[in-house]
Amino acid sequence: MQSHQEVKTVPSGAVFCCRDKKRIHMKSEMERAVDRLIENPGAVFLMGALDSGKTTFGLELAKRAVAAGLRTAIVDADVVQSTIGPPTTTGLRFVDAATEFSPEGLRVADGLGFVGSMIPKGHLLPLITSTMKLVNQARARGCDLIVIDSSSLVSGIYGQTLKYFKLDLISPDFVVAFERGGELEPVVGLAQRFTAAEVIELEVAPEVRSRSVDERMQSREEAFAAYFAHGSSRWRVKPTVFMPTLPPEFDLALLDELVVGMEDGDGHCVGIGVLEYDSGEDILRMISPVSEGVRGLRLGSIRMDISGRAKGPVDLRQLFGTA
Fold it and tell me: What is the pLDDT of residue 323?
C-alpha cells in the first residue's frame, strides 16, 4: 500500500549548535527539523528506542519554542525513564521563559496520569489513556506546541500496539522518529499509513551515549526518593477506597509497599503514594507528600519503598486470585 504522506529521512548531525568553521553557514538536519516544527507548531510525537536522543531533542525543541514565543507543553509518556513527575506516572509540564530545563527543574508536574508500573508491557491501556488525557489538557490550555515524549517500547506486537493507539487517539501533526538501523521501520510504517502526520526520521547521532541498566535504575530511584522527600506524611486508608475494589476478607498485608495512584474523583491523578501495612492494628496507612483532594486510590503493579528501591512487580490478578 502506498502512503499518502511522504516520509522525510534526515540524518541528525552531531549537535544543535554547530561550531565547526567549515559548517558555520550550514544547519544540521536536526536543526532544520527543529526549525520546521517551530515554524509549523502543533502536536509533535517523538519515538525511539532506549538512548536514542529523543528526550534531549524534545527538551531542546520546547526550549526553542518558548524562545520563539510559542505556548508550549511537554507530555512525558516515557514510564521507563520519566522526566516529568514521579516514576510510574505520565507527566504534563507547561514551560515558559522561567523554566529550568534540567532534571530537577522539570520534575514537578502540572498534570499526572497514573500507570502504576515502570514497564509498558502489561500496562498499555493506562499508558495510552493517561497520555491522551494529558495531551487534551495541553490543548485545552491553548498550547501552540505540544511535545509528546513516548516510551522506548518500539518493537514487537506490544510496541506496535502501543504506538498505533497513541497515534490514533492523539492525531499528532508531526511524528519524529529517531532511527538506529531499521528498528523503527514497523512503527514508522504505522505512522505513515494510518495517520495524517508528517513523518520526520532522524538518525541517532553517534555520540549519543547509552546508559547502563544500573545508571537507569539509579536515576529512577533518585527521582522516586526526591518525590517523597518533600514533606511526606502517613495517614490511615479505608479498605473501601481502592480500584480495583478489594474482595471480602482480603488480606491487607498483601498491599504492603504497593505503589498507588491518588485520584481526585474528577478524572485527575493528584499524586502517588506507597501503602504501609500495620500488623498490630491490621490497617493500611498511606505515605505520600499529597494529603488533600484525594477521593480514591488506584492500585499499581510494583512494590517500592520511599527511598526509591523497587521491591518487585505485582500481578494484581494473582494478588486477587482471579483470572
Answer: 55
